[in-house]
Amino acid sequence: MATRNIVELGNPTLRKKSKPVVDFDENLGQLFDDMLQTMKEKNGMGISAVQVGVLRRALIVEIDQGKYLEVCNPTILETKGKCKNQEGCLSIPGFYTDVERPYYVKIEAYDRHGKKFEFEGEDYVARCICHEIDHLNGILFVDYTKAGRDYKKKKGVE
Ligand code: NI
After folding, report:
1. Which residues surround ligand 1, an ion (CB under 5 A)?
2. Which residues pair with 59 in a beta bridge?
3. 79: which of 85, 92, 120, 131 lies 20 to 30 Å off by Cα?
4. What CA–CA distances, in Å, run from 48 to 80, 82, 83, 113, 142?
């Protein structure tokens, strides 16, 4: 396992759309191991592959204390409710703002071995899943609020 460098706001890679995972091989396992170590070291609650510079649809979310869900090629099947709460991002250190997200989300996805599964999450878990899926599509939480857009403007980045 190794810690990888985090791609930060302003780097155009963060705005690219990630491609589906096709090879559920050793490299993918290594990627997940490294993502987890990087996320833990930075005290994050979630991380996506693009944040370590890999444009593949892979992400990790902490679903309980010390319990992590590895996700490949997620599809959102259902969302319910709304919930506004504070969000941050490893790629945007030091900035936090309230973002509205679904209270509940149900996804279909694949694990690191290519096995399909469904997962339901509520509250911060749903928030985290939505935030990380956004990363796979080049979307950042600062895009959603005035405070976030002002922050980008102040920093002179997209
Ligand atoms: Ni993030």
Report:
1. 89
2. 48, 71
3. 92
4. 23, 23, 22, 17, 16
Q: Does domain 12-155 have CATH number 3.90.45.10?
A: yes
Alpha carbon of 48 to ligand 1 centroid (Å): 7
Q: Are 92 and 134 spatial neighbours (Cβ–Cβ below 8 Å)?
A: no
Cβ contacts of 48 within 8 Å, gap of 6 or more? 18, 58, 59, 60, 132, 135, 136
Tokens of 71: 């996700």
Q: What is the distance in A from the centroid of ligand 1 to the CA of 69?
A: 16
| Domain ranges, ordered by start, for the chain | 12-155
How many A from CA of 90 to the centre of ligand 1? 6
Amino acid identity of residue 157, one-letter, is: V
Distances from the Cα of 136 to the Cα of 18, 57, 82, angstroms: 5, 6, 22
pLDDT in tens, 33-88: 999 999 999 999 999 999 999 999 999 999 999 999 999 999 999 999 999 999 99
In the block, which residue shows the tokens 């810690």?
Answer: 3
By annotation, the residues acting in catalysis are 132
